[in-house]
Specification:
257 residues, mainly alpha, 2 domains, 0% strand
Length: 257
């Protein structure tokens, strides 16, 4: 190893040290990417948003970042080996795979951003609540369960506005039309603040609004969509910057071998 080190100038040794340094963070970034992808895929909020929104691109971005994270961890080995053994072949493969991963991460970031910008949350929520909530087929049941989860977890009812707006919207829904009891419930139980006061909440009494969540769900859903888009995009950018620095160091070291 001593003879090999003599081949390198101080600049080459500096590049090799910096490359090893960045590879540690690159490996850590791969672990974070993989963990982030798994988090988005298994998170309860994410699963239920997938059911009630038309575009599920945050899931696509999560899968891409999960795969990229695995590749990052594998490719970092080439970087360490190439730097330690001063092997041009390993360094060349390292740079090549970094470029591929960079493109994958860029695609995932663009998808996450597109999901955040394009998704018409209000339109999707209105459509799934009126057309699918309370339906009987498998897809409708999944949407119903997701709506109940969102309303209970986010402490909201309907899409926009106050309790009165939610009642008006639910009166147009499949759920309301399918009710056979009389009088009909004006909102589902997931809209009620106190599950011990369902009768007062679900019946059209003079003070029903006191028992229904005061806000629609659109703002909470928008904020959650923004959270996924920001986290996926932000982490992807940070890891991509580390990759670019690693590529520069690897190319610098290759030139000095």
């Amino acid at each position: 190893m001593g003879d090999l080190k003599k081949k390198l100038s101080w600049g080459g040794n500096f590049c090799r040290g910096i490359l090893c340094f960045f590879n540690f963070f690159f490996l850590l970034g791969g672990v974070i990417l993989m963990a982030l992808g798994i988090w988005v895929l298994v998170d309860s909020d994410s699963k239920h948003l997938t059911a009630i929104l038309t575009d599920n691109l945050h899931h696509t971005a999560a899968y891409i970042l999960l795969i990229a994270g695995v590749f990052v961890m594998i490719v970092s080995i080439f970087g360490f080996c190439g730097a330690k053994m001063e092997n041009k072949c390993c360094l060349g493969m390292y740079v090549f795979f970094l470029v591929i991963i960079f493109i994958i991460e860029l695609a995932a970031g663009c998808i996450a951003l597109y999901f955040y910008v394009k998704t018409d949350v209000v339109k999707d929520l209105n459509r799934t609540l009126t057309n699918n909530y309370g339906g009987e087929d498998g897809g409708d049941v999944a949407i119903t369960n997701s709506w109940d989860f969102i309303q209970s977890s986010f402490e909201c009812c309907g899409v926009m506005g106050n309790a009165s707006s939610a009642v008006t919207l639910y009166e147009k829904s499949t759920w309301y039309k399918n009710q056979t009891d009389s009088p009909k419930n004006i909102v589902p139980a997931s809209c009620c603040m106190d599950q011990d006061s369902l009768a007062a909440c679900q019946q059209a009494t003079s003070n029903y609004a006191m028992y229904i969540y005061k806000q629609g769900c659109s703002e909470g859903v928008k904020n959650k969509v923004a959270q996924y888009g920001t986290v996926l995009g932000g982490v992807g950018i940070v890891v991509a910057i580390i990759q670019l620095m690693g590529m520069a160091c690897a190319l610098c070291l290759c030139k000095r071998l």
